[in-house]
Amino acid sequence: MNIIFGPVPSRRFGISLGIDLSPSLKQCNFDCLYCELSYAKTIDKQIETIDVKSIVSELKNSLTNHKNIDVITFTANGEPTLYPYLSELIDEIDKIKGDSKTLILTNGGNIYKKDIQNILKKIDIVKVSLDCVSNKCFRKLDRVDSSVDCDKIVDGLIFFRDIYTKQLILETLFVKTLNDNDKEIELIKDAITKIKPNRIDIGTIDRPPAYDVKPISYDKLVDIANRFEGLPVTISCKNKIKNRQYYSKDEIITVLKRRPLTNDDIDNLFDKESKINLDKLILDKKVRVILNNRVEFYKI
């Protein structure tokens, strides 16, 4: 049984060593249409579990063989917060992780539960999926288990942000005709504004999904990012179309007032002269560069 996997390089988190809390089968309270894992009946608690001792033992061996790990990532063939011994596991890993940070990738279906919030508070980086805000969209796109109260997820995230002082990252995956309409986009934007995460990652389908659903275009992702005005948004998309153009200093300032841009954005949008103009604005202290969890943002 391969509990530990990696290390794998991540542009946003560095070198990651993964812990699969459900290595033998899919155990999840969501059955998202875009998931690359095959269909499995949703559950509200794990049916099969691994003991903490086995996980820690395997992790120790991996940390001995692999140095300079940036993050130890809790994930699963499903939802990691369903693992019943997560709190104990975090405490044990904190004793051996050294300079590495802990990271969890969660669908957010349990985020409004106080016990889960208290567990997540102990993790260095919490990345939560938020594909929908409306109950209808949650049921149709994320196909949540009956135990999940969709109406409590956003309020749960807002409350969690108030008690969590570390890195909170939201991720939204857009699927054609499901959550890419104006109403859902506006609901997501309003929710993000209230939650106040450190960063928002938006993307679309780039792996074969379990169901017959389609990605949105890169241009559509850019349009959505621009609608998230003033928010630290990154675009994750394998099929990026470079559309490099000239931007004057004034035009760069106008663009950055709308939303901060990442290095990827600059590379896709700015031609050589525009990048020179950007460098001049940085020297003149009209633009600053902020590092947000290994992602550089250019902002006014």
Topology overview:
Elements: E1 4-10, E2 14-20, H1 52-65, E3 71-75, H2 86-94, E4 101-106, H3 114-120, E5 125-129, H4 135-142, H5 153-163, E6 167-174, H6 182-195, E7 199-204, H7 218-227, E8 233-236, H8 249-258, E9 261-262, H9 263-269, H10 272-283, E10 288-292, E11 295-299
Parallel strand pairs: 2-3, 3-4, 4-5, 5-6, 6-7, 7-8
Antiparallel strand pairs: 1-2, 9-11, 10-11
Helix pairs in contact: 1-2
Features of the shown structure:
300 residues, 11 strands, eight-stranded mixed β-sheet, alpha/beta, globular, 10 helices
In short:
This protein is α/β, with parallel strands linked by helices and 300 residues long.
Structure description:
- An eight-stranded mixed β-sheet has the order 1-2-3-4-5-6-7-8. The chain has a three-stranded antiparallel β-sheet with strand order 9-11-10.
- Helix 1 runs parallel beside helix 2.
- It is built from ten helices and eleven strands.
- The longest helix is centred in the first third of the chain and has 14 residues, at 52-65.
- With 300 residues, the chain is α/β, with parallel strands linked by helices.
User: Beta fraction of the residues?
Assistant: 15-25%
Gyration radius from CA atoms, angstroms = 20 Å
DSSP strand count: 11
What is the structural class?
alpha/beta
- Average per-residue pLDDT, rounded, comes to 89
Q: Span between N and C termini?
A: 49 Å
**SS element count, helices:** 10
Helix content: 25-40%
Sequence of secondary-structure elements: EEHEHEHEHHEHEHEHEHHEE
How many strands, which pairing sense, and closed or not: the largest β-sheet?
Answer: 8 strands, mixed
Q: Taking strands numbered 1, 2, ... along the chain, how are they ordered across the largest sheet?
A: 1-2-3-4-5-6-7-8
Global outline: globular
Q: Would you identify the regions where 5 or more consecutive residues have pLDDT less than 50?
A: none
